[in-house]
Design a protein that fits this description.
alpha+beta; 429 residues; 14 strands; 11 helices; 20% strand; seven-stranded antiparallel β-sheet; binds zinc ion
């Protein structure tokens, strides 16, 4: 199994070498925009080979790009047009079937490349050297930089292909605030396929708004990640955003863009830390199917829905999935139906088990009382245990809670509803 991740390397630059990177990045960006216009004028061309033939001489002469970077430009622009064409086609079929009336406008004019990112191909435009150094192609030939990064990422780079790590393309990125250059290197890490025997630990996670995540193991080791302070900060972002949006001046728009970048970084940072704290080697981690989160917030009113929509749960799920794989764990999705209103003590399912949709779960049948999000986490854990048990029995991991097969789902839910939390449920149930 392959896991893809990105190593963020901070490059040590001098004013001279920094300028070289900057010149290269600018030439690359100009070349992207030139190529985008040529592709647009030639029938919105997405064929990378044909596009390459049209622009290559100009990229070499007018923009002075080294040959490999020129190749990357036509590849990148071709791929962008291809992606936009896919959206146009989807939109056309959606309009035909009445899902939407809006016409997709992404291909009405040539896409503009604003992000200051330059793509470097491994072993051609950039290569690693001994002593934690990297050589990067610039307009005036290769320049060698020393760098720093997360120890785990540096180890993976060091291992290289002999250690099951495949290095891919890298992007040069300059932080607009600090002017610091980073090389974002994509790594494919070969990890052994998970087996139920290799995953001895079980953990279930409930993702929510008051607590961004609550987890438990069958042995009642729990983790709580409160969302209060973070939500507060998110709402502060929202207030500034509304103000800037209503202003609408150019300066306001620029600050809005910066604010949104900062907010995205903040969320990603929080999600990284939560995911890091949850994953453990040899653990099978159960997560609720995320579609449920939207459904569940729908009943809690507009204000909460807006608030919830703002937290990047899909991102947290993705971080959990890849971080788990890197450390030798694994994540699965379980059906989320009734996880918040089913009693893990007696099995009774009712909306009334959550008086006032509050933070306390109180079973109207047996009186069992517990933190509501922990009830969710326990139900997810029970389902994860059952899936692992099936996996051991059949040798097949059946994960996907798929909405398409309603009969199979009903059967699964029936089995889930028979699960009970005991003081120390044995792994075999
Ligand atoms: Zn009960």
């Amino acid at each position: 199994m392959k896991t893809i991740l990105t190593a963020k390397l901070k490059l040590h630059t001098t004013s001279e070498t920094g300028q070289r990177l900057l010149d290269t990045a600018r030439a690359y960006q100009n070349a992207l925009n030139y190529t985008s216009r040529v592709a647009f004028e030639n029938g919105k061309m997405s064929n990378q080979v044909k596009l390459h033939g049209l622009v290559y001489p100009a990229l070499r002469e007018r923009f002075a790009l080294p040959s490999q970077l020129a190749c990357s430009v036509s590849r990148q622009v071709g791929a962008t047009f291809k992606g936009l064409w896919t959206k146009v086609k989807h939109n056309a079929s959606h309009r035909k079937s009445g899902y939407t009336q809006k016409r997709y406008q992404g291909l009405d004019k040539a896409p503009v490349f604003t992000a200051n990112t330059t793509t470097f191909t491994y072993q051609r435009d950039y290569r690693f050297k001994a002593g934690q150094q990297v050589s990067i192609t610039t307009l005036e030939g290769p320049v060698v930089f020393s760098y720093e990064g997360y120890t785990k990422h540096l180890d993976l780079i060091q291992k290289g292909s002999s250690g099951g790590v495949t290095l891919g393309a890298a992007k040069l990125w300059r932080d607009p605030r600090t002017q610091q250059f980073y090389l974002l290197v994509s790594l494919a890490v070969e990890t052994p396929d998970p087996t139920p025997e290799s995953l001895k630990g079980i953990k279930g996670a409930d993702l929510g708004e008051r607590y961004l995540a609550v987890t438990t193991t069958p042995g009642n080791t729990t983790q709580f990640f409160p969302g209060g302070a973070i939500r507060h900060k998110g709402e502060a972002f929202q207030r500034v955003r509304s103000r800037l949006q209503s202003k609408g001046t150019r300066g306001a728009k620029r600050r809005l863009r910066q604010l949104m970048l900062r907010e995205r970084r903040f969320k990603a940072d929080v999600n990284h830390r939560i995911a890091q704290a949850i994953v453990e080697p040899g653990f099978l981690i159960g997560l609720e199917d995320l579609t449920r989160i939207r459904e569940r917030t729908a009943v809690r009113g507009k204000r909460n829905r807006r608030r919830r929509a703002k937290w990047a749960f899909a991102e947290l799920g993705a971080f959990l999935s890849y971080k788990a794989q890197v450390v030798g764990g694994f994540t699965i999705k379980v059906d989320a139906d009734y996880t918040s209103k089913g009693c893990p003590n007696c099995g009774h399912v009712s909306d009334k088990n959550r008086p006032g949709k509050g933070l306390t779960f109180r079973c109207e049948n047996c009186g069992f009382t517990l933190h509501a999000d922990l009830v969710g986490a326990r139900n997810v854990t029970l389902r994860t245990l059952l899936i692992r048990q099936d996996w051991m029995g059949t040798g097949l991991l059946s994960t996907a809670p798929d909405g398409s097969d309603t009969e199979a789902k009903a059967k699964r839910l029936q089995r889930f509803l028979e699960l009970r939390w005991s003081p120390d449920p044995s792994p075999g149930l």
